[in-house]
Design the sequence.
């Protein structure tokens, strides 16, 4: 009994520490009282892909207000693959304008670096609905199209997300 309680405590400690990622320090100046809303892990079949944490002012997310989503990768992934998977998921939301998709794809491909296990990319939606991306603490670029911000972050936060359990965890539901 004592051994099983110890194992349970150890696993809970690991689970909580896995999601203790903090947003880039620059966001503390941009989002008043930024704090976590919720966290979760995204897995495909048996492969853990990333841990995600949603941040917002006072830990309360509103779609129309600034927020940040941080992904800490649990495996090595090429930036091109991240961009392609993002475009695939945006298309599944019903976006069919090929010129727009091609533009967003190029911007993401130019922006997203190859990631290794433990590295983080954070996307921040500012008050102008622009997406600002950070690799660790370093800002790596912006996509200034509010439509992009809507569809890109709906991959995780939209009602029709492919990962509803992760969405619920991110939103603290």
Sequence:
């Amino acid at each position: 009994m004592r051994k099983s309680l110890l194992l349970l405590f150890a696993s809970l400690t690991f689970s909580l520490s896995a999601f203790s990622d903090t947003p880039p320090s620059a966001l503390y100046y941009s989002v008043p009282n930024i704090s976590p809303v919720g966290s979760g892990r995204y897995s495909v079949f048996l492969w853990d892909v990333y841990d995600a944490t949603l941040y917002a002012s006072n830990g309360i997310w509103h779609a129309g207000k600034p927020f940040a989503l941080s992904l800490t990768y649990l495996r090595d992934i090429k930036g091109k693959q991240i961009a392609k998977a993002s475009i695939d998921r945006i298309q599944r939301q019903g976006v069919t304008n090929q010129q727009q998709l091609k533009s967003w794809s190029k911007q993401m491909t130019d922006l997203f670096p190859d990631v290794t296990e433990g590295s983080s990319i954070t996307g921040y939606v500012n008050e102008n609905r622009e997406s600002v991306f950070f690799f660790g603490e370093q800002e790596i670029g912006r996509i200034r199209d509010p439509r992009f911000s809507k569809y890109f972050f709906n991959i995780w936060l939209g009602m029709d997300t492919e990962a509803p359990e992760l969405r619920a965890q991110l939103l603290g539901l």
Observations:
- The two ends are 32 Å apart (CA to CA).
- The longest helix spans residues 2-18.
